């Protein structure tokens, strides 16, 4: 890792810990040079990296201002569709359908999803734009035995409403796994990420009907600094 990248990560850590709180200004270049014992070029490269990833803003004659980031709640225990989730939170929300087709479950998908090898599924690739930024990439696999017909028009209206209101399916529960993983080029090309971002939230979801039929498997990638994951837990009744 280059010296400026190490410095950039250290300043970013201080931003996250609010040692440099939102809307405050970073110390001057001269003070940063004295504190870290590096050249002005190294300081400027580190600040340029933070600016390109949206953490600071250069204000002429004033310095580098820390940008406030209001993270969006992602409710882990919620089975609502993504469009229902974010429309209800009054965010500017748009979805781009990048691909919709049928495919056959191969060995890799069987291992990840739990579907049977060789069965037919819908492959649905979508990009989610929140407040004008592409922050989520999502791929869904739905069993055609459960969902025989699917069109872009149906999806644009709301996939889950179609399943419940038109197909009269009763959605029950889901299992989610959340991890932080390295960003790969095939994922990064679809999202608005800073060139120095290295990690991304990955959410894997297995959804079931009330008769415990497994009908959907989803993988989604979320830009790290835009979301916080929220779990609501009920105390069991005796």
From TrEMBL:
Pfam families tied to this protein: GntR, UTRA
Domain HTH gntR-type: 1-69
CDD domains reported in the protein's UniProt record: WHTH_GntR
Molecular-function GO terms, alphabetical: DNA binding; DNA-binding transcription factor activity
SMART domains named in the record: HTH_GNTR, UTRA
Keywords of this entry: DNA-binding, Transcription, Transcription regulation
UniProt keyword annotation of Zinc-finger present: no
Swiss-Prot/TrEMBL GO biological process terms: negative regulation of DNA-templated transcription
Gene3D superfamilies xrefs: Chorismate lyase-like (3.40.1410.10), Winged helix-like DNA-binding domain superfamily/Winged helix DNA-binding domain (1.10.10.10)
InterPro entries tied to this protein: Bact_HTH_transcr_reg, Chorismate_lyase_/UTRA_dom_sf, Tscrpt_reg_HTH_GntR, UTRA, WH-like_DNA-bd_sf, WH_DNA-bd_sf
PANTHER family: HTH-TYPE TRANSCRIPTIONAL REGULATOR TRER, MANNOSYL-D-GLYCERATE TRANSPORT/METABOLISM SYSTEM REPRESSOR MNGR-RELATED
Protein name: Trehalose operon repressor
């Amino acid at each position: 890792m280059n010296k400026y990248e190490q410095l950039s990560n250290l300043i970013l850590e201080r931003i996250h810990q609010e040692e440099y709180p939102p809307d405050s200004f970073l110390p001057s270049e001269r003070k940063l040079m004295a504190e870290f014992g590096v050249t002005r070029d190294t300081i400027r490269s580190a600040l340029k990296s933070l600016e390109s990833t949206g953490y600071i803003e250069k204000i002429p004659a004033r310095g580098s201002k820390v940008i406030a980031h209001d993270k969006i709640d992602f409710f882990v225990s919620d089975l609502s569709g993504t469009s229902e989730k974010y429309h209800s939170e009054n965010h500017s929300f748009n979805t781009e359908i990048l691909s919709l087709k049928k495919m056959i479950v191969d060995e890799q998908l069987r291992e990840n999803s739990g579907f049977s090898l060789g069965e037919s599924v819908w492959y649905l690739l979508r990009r989610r734009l929140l407040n004008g930024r592409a922050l989520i990439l999502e791929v869904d696999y739905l069993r055609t035995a459960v969902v025989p017909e699917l069109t872009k028009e149906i999806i644009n209206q709301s996939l889950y409403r179609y399943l419940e209101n038109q197909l009269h399916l009763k959605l029950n529960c889901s299992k989610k796994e959340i991890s932080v993983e390295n960003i790969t080029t095939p994922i990064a090309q679809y999202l608005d990420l800073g060139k120095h971002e290295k990690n991304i939230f990955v959410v894997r979801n297995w959804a079931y009907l009330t008769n415990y039929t497994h009908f959907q498997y989803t993988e989604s990638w979320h830009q790290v600094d835009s979301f916080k994951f929220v779990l609501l837990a009920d105390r069991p009744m005796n």
